[in-house]
TrEMBL record, chain A:
Transmembrane segments: none annotated. InterPro entries: AAA+_ATPase, ABC_transporter-like_ATP-bd, ABC_transporter-like_CS, ABC_transpr_LolD-like, MacB-like_ATP-bd, P-loop_NTPase. It comes from the Bacteria. One of its GO terms (molecular function) is transmembrane transporter activity. It comes from Tamaricihabitans halophyticus. The keyword Membrane does not apply. One of its GO terms (cellular component) is plasma membrane. This is Putative ABC transport system ATP-binding protein. Pfam families: ABC_tran (PF00005). Keywords: ATP-binding, Nucleotide-binding, Transport.
From TrEMBL, chain B:
Residues 190-302 form the ABC3 transporter permease C-terminal domain. It comes from Tamaricihabitans halophyticus. GO terms for molecular function: transmembrane transporter activity. Belongs to the ABC-4 integral membrane protein family. It is found in: Cell membrane. It is a multi-pass membrane protein. This is FtsX-like permease family protein.
Length: 230, 737
């Protein structure tokens, strides 16, 4: 029985439970993500933030609960379909960029498109446009090892956005950067996401950043402890 | 803390360290099995040839001789029987006997091997027993046989019974030391060609997951561990796996040695423990291989241990220079030079081979880098781009993955080129027809052989059809020389390959080569000349048979005295039904001379080729196993090294199949190109080797292409190792490092 909402959330989690042995990483989480909104997810280390992102994105299966994308249940899909969903509807920014070392910045950005059978020339052109948009002109031919941490993270953001996903998951994307670079990188991410209308879920320890976002979800011991606005 | 304890603790705690340890263990075990097999080969050859040396006795001067011995091969159907005919001249003859030879048989006595005694019992007397006429006075022990199933007869005679094929011998023990040149050469080639991929395998096992380990050790180093502590840990971790692998390999090699002893060579298999290595060599292998592995692992890490940050962001890699390609022509020339100057000595051949292998190792990375460059420029799908970059960025590592395949293909196409050309030159040989048995003898013995053979035939109710055919050297007025077979034309049509000629009415000379003027004959080269009648008609024999090209048919009426002189061939036609009885009749009368026929000659050639092909196939399979193991371990290692990257790609939705395809391309594509190169190189070296074999005509044949297919197959199989490793990476948590 699919629940009805007036403004249907683009992504929704219902009663999400994830266990590791006897330990609950998630102990029943409900969350709605509206199209285009930016949410900060905060909480102490080990509280279940990463688990929440992975379960919502279908990287990890939940032990209980449901995940909906635009009203459609996605947690029961098989691995192949979940892969396709992640490739087409979601974008990911990891803490260390996790770029492919063998590929240039431009190729890294183009990679998801190429794997999605976009033609080579078109994918590379789109990738270069995204790099320009993220203020990385002239770095297109560099390898990840030749980029600074902030630059690498911007490439990762370009990659996450280039296929115009509905939701972007960012797990401590600036955790490895100094404060100023972190702020700039975060701003770049939010601006770019706003442009494409993608919703963003950002896990962060940065209080100022969280406060600057319209909505914050605090997780503690695998549950939603508080939400701002409530 | 003791590095071993630390290593064990890491292994217990970390699943991935355990995985790589298991891969190291397997790699070392496979390499150990091979090395111990190859190491046992020269010794096995030596042991077998020492045991059977007495079967090929060395001739001596007439003064030192105590006996006369003729060593030949007889055939029963297609089965070869070693036959040694012996006549003692002096009571000292039997004084020292080789181990396993119970007794020197006197006249009309025989000593048989157990298998031959059995075969004789199973068959009618006239077909087989008759050849070894006499009482069996002993049975050979295993110490005197190549294998328990070898068929050998030592047949005693009166000194006068033996033909001139028998040589004076001082003692049967003098035969010891006869060597099997071909097998020694093959063993050497096997060691050169298979040892290298064995070492590559060991090296790739020890370099496994190097990137990951480098990161961990850089962290340890940054945390304050001394270089020695770091190296000690790696050495301990690797040594544990390598020693276990070496022991496992030695254990597995023992039953394998037994299996190998059933592989026939030169008409016989081996004694079960011919391949058993002395304990000292086993220990040496079990120590040396792990030591090499540990050395390779620690050398690779020295850089990290001394300069941790340098390792953490090592990005710049040097591209192999084009001069490496020069190694191939240099090695090729050196190889040919060695062949030319060394007169094909084994050392020169093996040294040349080692050079070619070394050249492939030098040129391989450069080629790999070039292929990578092509992919990087021309890719359409990301799998090709990924593969190309990987090849371009670290061509040495990438080449390691295909090195085994390259060597397998090189060896295989070389061997098969040689075999194919040898096969092409097989055949021909005898001027007699397929159903004719013949024995070469001096004129005196020939008379006796014909008489006794015909008596024997008569006793078995067969027609007395043995005749003698004298051979002469015929020259014409212009010095043109051919061999003259003295036989009337109608018999020649029945017995020889002159079957198609038209017989002239009066006694004539029939010759495919044109002869002019006065003809004369010699009974031995340079001997006294005997003129043929001046009016002897000479007919041109219309035959294109190359065997007869240098041969003429001379009617006996033209050379009436010939029957008492020179060399004679005793000839006996047979039918399929009478073959073995006829052979027995001839063999028992032949006085130690070898009974020949075209089919047995061809069967012998076939058997030699079958031996070679068998050894080649075993070598190819072995190399394929090595290549597959190397490539699989390297492919798995490269996934483990890049697990975070691949993990995040899969998390972001890249299907496992797409990544697996990229990794397969990475392993298969360079192997594909490398196999073509290796195949060509192998054919080239094969031609070089053929120059060692007299009278061979080097030619390309379809067999040369077979190893390319094998190489591709091995590469594809090896590449499938990527998928399970990827699945394993996917099942692990994404961010635990
Ligand atoms: N692969 C795993 N195996 C076992 N326990 C895990 C695993 N991943 C996470 N956990 C546990 O689940 C809890 C939540 O982890 P996580 O979602 O990573 O928290 P956060 O991202 O908020 O730091 C922690 O107690 C962690 O120890
Ligand atoms: Mg986390």
């Amino acid at each position: 029985m699919a629940p009805q909402w007036t403004a249907q959330p683009v992504l929704a989690g219902r009663g999400l439970v994830k266990r590791y042995g006897n330990e609950h990483a998630l102990a029943g989480v409900d969350i709605d993500v509206t199209a285009g909104e930016a949410i900060a997810i905060v909480g102490p280390s080990g509280s279940g933030k990463t688990s929440l992102l992975h379960v919502l994105a279908g990287i990890l299966p939940a032990d209980e609960g449901q995940v909906f994308l635009a009203g459609q249940r996605i947690d029961q899909l098989n691995e192949a379909n979940r892969s396709e969903l992640r490739r087409k509807e979601f974008g990911f920014v990891f803490q260390n960029g996790m770029l492919v070392d063998e590929l240039t910045a431009q190729e890294n950005v183009a990679l998801p498109m190429l794997l999605g059978d976009v033609a080579k020339a078109q994918a590379l052109r789109a990738a270069r446009e995204w790099l320009d948009q993220l203020d990385l002109p002239g770095l297109a031919e560099r390898r990840p090892g030749e980029l600074s941490g902030g630059q690498a993270q911007r490439v990762a953001i370009a990659r996450a956005l280039a296929h115009q996903p509905k939701v972007i998951f960012a797990d401590e994307p600036t955790g490895a950067l100094d404060t100023r670079t972190g702020e700039e990188t975060m701003r770049a991410l939010l601006d770019a996401a706003a442009q494409t209308g993608a919703a963003v879920l950002i896990v962060t320890h940065d209080r100022d950043l969280a406060a600057s976002l319209p909505r914050t979800v605090a997780i503690r011991d695998g549950r939603v402890a508080s939400e701002v606005p409530a | 803390m003791n590095p071993f304890v630390l290593g064990l603790r890491v292994m217990r705690a970390d699943r991935r360290t355990r995985t790589s340890s298991i891969l190291i263990l397997v790699g070392v075990a496979v390499a150990t099995i091979l090395v111990s097999l190859l190491a046992s080969l020269p010794q096995a050859v030596q042991e077998r040839s020492e045991r059977t040396g007495w079967q090929e006795p060395i001739s001596t001067s007439e003064e030192d001789a105590t006996m006369r011995v003729s060593s030949t091969v007889d055939h029963f159907g297609d089965t070869a029987i070693k036959r040694i005919d012996i006549a003692a001249d002096s009571p000292k003859a039997g004084a020292e006997l080789p181990p396993g030879v119970p007794k020197l048989p006197g006249p009309d006595q025989v000593v048989l091997s157990p298998a031959l005694a059995e075969l004789i019992k199973e068959n009618p007397e006239a077909m087989l027993a008759k050849r070894f006429a006499g009482a069996q006075v002993g049975t050979f022990g295993e110490e005197s046989l190549s294998a328990p199933d070898q068929l050998v007869a030592l047949v005693g005679h009166q000194p006068t019974e033996l033909t001139s094929e028998a040589v004076p011998v001082a003692s049967l023990n003098d035969g010891i030391g006869t060597s099997d040149g071909m097998l020694e050469l093959l063993a050497g080639v096997g060691i050169v060609v298979l040892l290298v991929p064995s070492l590559v395998l060991v090296a790739s096992a020890s370099r496994l997951t190097a990137a990951r380990r480098e990161r961990r050790l850089a962290a340890l180093r940054l945390a304050g561990a001394t270089p020695r502590q770091v190296l000690g840990m790696v050495a301990a971790e690797t040594a544990l796996a390598a020693i276990a692998g070496a022991l496992l390999g030695l254990l597995a090699a023992t039953p394998l040695h037994q299996v190998v002893s059933h592989v026939p060579w030169a008409g016989a298999t081996w004694q079960p423990d011919d391949f058993t290595l002395p304990v000292s060599i086993s220990v040496l292998i079990a120590v040396l291989i792990p030591a090499l592995v540990v050395l390779a692992a620690t050398l690779g890490l020295r850089r990290v241990a001394t300069n941790p940050l340098g390792a953490a962001n090592a990005q710049e890699r040097q591209r192999p220079k084009a001069w490496r390609l020069l190694a191939i022509p240099v090695a090729g020339l050196a190889f040919l030079g060695a062949l030319a100057s060394g007169q094909g000595s084994q050392l020169a051949v093996l040294g040349g081979l080692a050079l070619v292998v070394l050249a492939a190792t030098l040129a391989g990375p450069w080629l790999t880098s070039v292929i990578g460059g092509v992919f990087v420029r021309a890719w359409r799908r990301p799998a090709l781009l990924l593969a190309g970059r990987r090849l371009r960025d670290d061509p040495k590592a990438a080449y390691r993955a295909s090195a085994g395949v390259v060597l397998a293909v090189f060896t295989g196409s070389m061997a098969l080129t040689v075999l194919g050309s040898i096969e092409a030159m097989a055949g021909g040989g005898s001027e007699y027809r397929d159903n004719v048995l013949y024995v070469r003898a001096e004129a005196d013995s020939a008379k006796r052989i014909v008489r006794e053979t015909n008596e024997n035939l008569g006793q078995n109710g067969l027609r007395a059809s043995a005749i003698s055919v004298p051979m002469t050297y015929l020259s014409d007025a212009e010095g043109q020389q051919v061999q003259g077979m003295v036989l009337d034309c109608s018999s020649a049509k029945e017995l020889t390959r002159f079957e198609g000629v038209t017989c002239p009415a009066q006694p004539s000379v029939l010759s495919p080569t044109s002869l002019a003027g006065q003809l004369s004959a010699e009974y031995e080269p340079g001997g006294q000349q005997q003129r043929l009648p001046a009016d002897t008609p000479v007919w041109s024999a219309d035959t294109a048979d190359p065997v007869l090209a240098n041969m003429a048919l001379v009617d006996p009426a033209l050379l009436p005295e010939v029957a008492d002189k020179g060399t004679v061939t005793v000839v006996l036609p047979t039918t399929p039904d009478t073959l073995e009885v006829a052979r027995s009749a001839l063999a028992s009368a032949a006085g130690g001379a070898e009974v020949r026929s075209l089919p047995t000659m061809l069967a012998e050639q076939d058997a030699k080729l079958a031996d070679l092909r068998r050894v080649t196939v075993i070598g190819l399979l072995t190399a394929g196993l090595l290549a597959g193991a190397s490539a699989a371990i390297t492919a798995a290692g490269s996934v483990l090294d890049r697990r975070r990257t691949f993990g995040s790609l899969m998390a972001a939705g890249t299907p496992l199949g797409v990544l697996a395809r990229a990794l397969r391309a990475e392993a298969a594509l360079p192997a594909l190109v490398a196999t073509l190169g290796a195949g060509a190189l192998g054919v080239g070296v094969g031609f070089g080797l053929l120059t060692l074999i007299e009278g061979s005509i080097p030619m390309l044949n379809a067999w040369s292409l077979v190893p390319v297919g094998l190489g591709i197959l091995v590469a594809l199989i090896a590449a499938t190792a990527a998928a399970p490793t990827l699945r394993r990476v996917r099942s692990e948590p994404l961010s635990d490092e």
